[in-house]
């Protein structure tokens, strides 16, 4: 019953793509009642999709930050792991989710938008209200209706992958998003398949893509390891420019680089690192942690990123 309704809604959204594009952040999700940690499975356009719901609903919404930063153009589009602070508390546990429900479809839009705080490396843009509702999984058909998308291309991987997404800042505007134990979004990309993500404007965050059979690796402080895919879409602290890069900084600093490769590409710009820190192309390694602007830097406007999982060159 819900599934049918949802399909109708998805169809309506696709048909009304201009509206969706113009008012994406105002569209309301329809799954607030779904519990955090529920494994959600749906058949959409004939394809089985599974993801873990970490969208806790409005009861988990953070208090809106009071301060609003004045916009200023920055050269460093993506604040990298070089500025990694210590977390306010050291969380080393990994997320486990076991509750299983069958639900309908992906969220049909973003939640609300948080007010930005800070500038430069301490800038925190939009983390979504509720927290994490700025990063959602969408159907292939809906990719063209969103301004900022990430296509997770698993055609090169031969086992199921998990892709965990974090916001750069936590719900208190601290630069600790990559210590998260509850992720804004976890997507399972089955071997050989492709999944699609939309990110709301003024969002900064990252992801790692690793075999689903593993726990998410972490350093001694709890930071997520792996080759990070970093993104910064329509940054209000940077004249609405977007940026992206692949980074091995956190992995190298932890002395662990045996991770699957990752390539990110948009508008003809590539940032990539091959498996086990093989070839590095326009991507961050520890030696370049202090250099700004590595990766893609794109002027204001829509960005359709493709991320190739398990990139081996
Ligand atoms: C950035 O985008 C916002 C929202 O669309 C818009 O109001 C603002 O004028 C833009 N700023 C620049 C510098 O383009």
Instruction: Report the mean per-residue pLDDT as an integer.
Output: 77
Order of helices and strands: HHEEEEEEEEEEHEEEEE
Q: How does the helix and strand content classify structurally?
A: mainly beta
Shape: globular
Instruction: Work out the helix count.
Output: 3
Q: Which band does the percent of strand residues land in?
A: 25-35%
* Fraction of residues in helix: under 10%
Which residue ranges are poorly predicted, with pLDDT under 50 across at least 5 consecutive positions? 1-104
Bound small molecules, deduplicated: 2-acetamido-2-deoxy-beta-D-glucopyranose
The tally of strands reads 15
Strand order of the largest sheet: 1-2-6-5-8-9-10-14
Summed up, the domain count is 1
Radius of gyration: 18 Å
Which oligomeric state applies?
single chain
Major sheet attributes: 8 strands, antiparallel
What is the distance, rounded to the nearest whole angstrom, between the alpha carbons of the first and last residues? 45 Å
Structure, explained:
This protein is mainly beta and 313 residues long. It has one domain. The protein has 3 helices and 15 strands. It has helices at 2-15, 17-22, 249-253, and strands at 39-44, 47-52, 135-138, 148-153, 161-167, 185-189, 194-199, 203-211, 228-235, 241-247, 262-266, 269-273, 280-281, 296-298, 303-309. The strands form 2 sheets. It has an 8-stranded antiparallel sheet. Strands 3-7-4-15-11-12-13 form a 7-stranded mixed sheet, with no helix packed on it. A hairpin with a 2-residue loop joins strand 1 (39-44) and strand 2 (47-52). The termini are far apart. Bound molecules: 2-acetamido-2-deoxy-beta-D-glucopyranose.
């Amino acid at each position: 019953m819900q599934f049918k309704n949802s399909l109708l809604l998805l169809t309506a959204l696709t048909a009304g793509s201009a509206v969706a594009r113009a008012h994406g952040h105002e569209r309301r999700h329809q799954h607030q009642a779904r519990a955090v940690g529920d494994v959600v499975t749906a058949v959409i356009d004939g394809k089985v999709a599974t993801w873990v719901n970490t969208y806790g609903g409005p009861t988990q919404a953070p208090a809106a930050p009071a301060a609003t930063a004045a916009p200023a153009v920055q050269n460093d589009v993506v604040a990298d792991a070089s500025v990694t602070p210590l977390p306010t508390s050291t969380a080393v546990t990994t997320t486990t989710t076991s509750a299983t429900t069958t639900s309908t479809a992906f969220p049909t839009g973003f939640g609300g938008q948080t007010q930005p705080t800070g500038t430069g490396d301490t800038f925190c843009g939009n983390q979504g209200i509720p927290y994490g509702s700025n990063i959602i999984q969408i159907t292939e058909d809906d990719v063209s209706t969103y301004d900022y998308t990430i296509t997770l291309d698993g055609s090169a991987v031969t086992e199921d992958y998990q892709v965990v997404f974090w916001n750069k800042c936590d719900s208190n505007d601290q630069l600790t998003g990559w210590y998260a134990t509850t992720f804004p979004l976890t997507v399972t990309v089955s071997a050989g398949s492709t999944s699609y993500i939309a990110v709301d404007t003024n969002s900064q965050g990252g992801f790692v893509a690793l075999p689903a059979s593993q726990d998410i690796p972490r350093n001694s402080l709890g930071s997520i390891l792996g080759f990070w895919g970093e993104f910064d879409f329509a940054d209000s602290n940077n004249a609405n420019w977007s940026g992206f890069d692949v980074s091995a900084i956190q992995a190298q600093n932890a002395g662990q680089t045996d991770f699957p490769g990752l390539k990110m590409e948009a508008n003809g710009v590539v940032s990539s690192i091959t498996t086990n820190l093989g070839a590095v192309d326009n991507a961050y390694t520890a030696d370049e942690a202090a250099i700004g602007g590595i990766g893609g830097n794109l002027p204001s406007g829509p960005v359709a990123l493709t991320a190739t999982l398990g990139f081996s060159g």
